[in-house]
């Protein structure tokens, strides 16, 4: 005990006396225990002391027993029982083991082992919760544990799976990307095979990852032979669904009650028809509120398409200036039962999400939650309403997606699309570095992704392709020209007019429109190479302010090829571009040969919002050959 308490220190001469006094005080505490059944025996046994107690009185022993029982139930296919046992085990923890000694600097290997067993129990609990379909409930705990223990691959996999099942595929892939970057940078290792396979399953949206509607039944404990076993609880079906609330209102030229009644009746008929057309069900209709529920495959997409159809139908009428309906769409888990009419009912959580969104909807608005938006990005374009909790506003229906030319790197293109979705959802910048040798298809890869994001025209992200040898100043000019809609053949007068119109639309201080236009015109003057110092810093500040405002409404994607041939000033600018425009959805995709790392060994390293990709020429050629043969 002396060696354990004074490890690595000069043991004081009074050490044995200190211990004996402590033991004497402990004996007094134990002697005062009133409950004889919980007595603890402290004996003097050479070369020290022996403490005898019932194992159930020691929280560490109880923790280990409960964890073992929970693990056994999990292995036996009873995750509900496992959840209860593992939660009881973890509830015994109220801080670090022997916290008073730890605070005084005592470190024992046993303490690390015990803490490790706690992390393992938490992982087992998360696995059981995920098996029960409780992926929303464990997201926060999973994120907190991964922050504390960033190299625990099992936790990473569980968080990826939970995010995917919550409809947040891009976030799930970003978790993998962050872990891989950290492991490569700090350990020189790639993530394990199981984690890599999970990433591929998410990219492929494999049905094996989905949690189907399950029967959540808590099996009864085995009853003695002479007793009657307790009845089984009623099965509760859990499934993913999307709810829609339509709120009709009298707007425009209605003056009489009968006209209002006719309008509400007509709109109600439209809602029922469009909902049925897309295999949904109207589950409630009270006054000016109508609630529809969409279940089964593609429920979120069908719900948004129904909302768009109702809005378009209302627009075609002659009622007022705006469609007389506000709409909120929310996706999530529900446990639908049936009311006496035989119609399904919607649980409270999903309805609360809808009602919360409806507060921010204006006439003609369709607002959706994060989950719905993530699941429907292929059928509708969106803008953020305001704060993250306020949802997304549907701008328009997307045109059908045309197949992009095969490049041999389709999985990487899917990763880019997921990263872009994350950039837009979180309003955060991101730098993607695409490395590959000659013939690996880097330029073709950039063009293929640019074609993907350009399919929606003005409703899609703003794509900016940097011309060769533009430099840092020239790249700013390209981005500004794209934001203003300036074309290469525009005359100076047209260029100036477009710049002024853009500044008037987005400038926060209307009194500074003229000064801002004059400052930004430095970027667009023919032949200006950026070396004119006068006004250059002010122009850079105005550029950052304007681009930030525009990107918040329409995300910006910058494409840069042959980055390894550029000068150091441009490399510095690209690495700092995210900081220069602030927390906005700007994505920079830069392609380069591996020689870039000879110049900048730490390129992109240490950045939270950075991803490195490598294109393989051999795999690209094999993929193309395989398609040609088939």
Automatic annotation (TrEMBL):
Positions of region (Disordered): 317-344
Residue ranges of every copy of the Bacterial transcriptional activator domain listed in the record: 58-203
Keywords: Transcription, Transcription regulation
SMART domains for this protein: BTAD (SM01043)
Record-linked InterPro entries: AAA_16, AfsR-DnrI-RedD_regulator, BTAD, Nucleotide_cyclase, P-loop_NTPase, TPR-like_helical_dom_sf, WH-like_DNA-bd_sf
UniProt keyword Transport, yes or no: no
Keyword Transcription on entry: yes
Protein name from the UniProt record: Bacterial transcriptional activator domain-containing protein
Organism the protein comes from: Saccharothrix mutabilis subsp. mutabilis
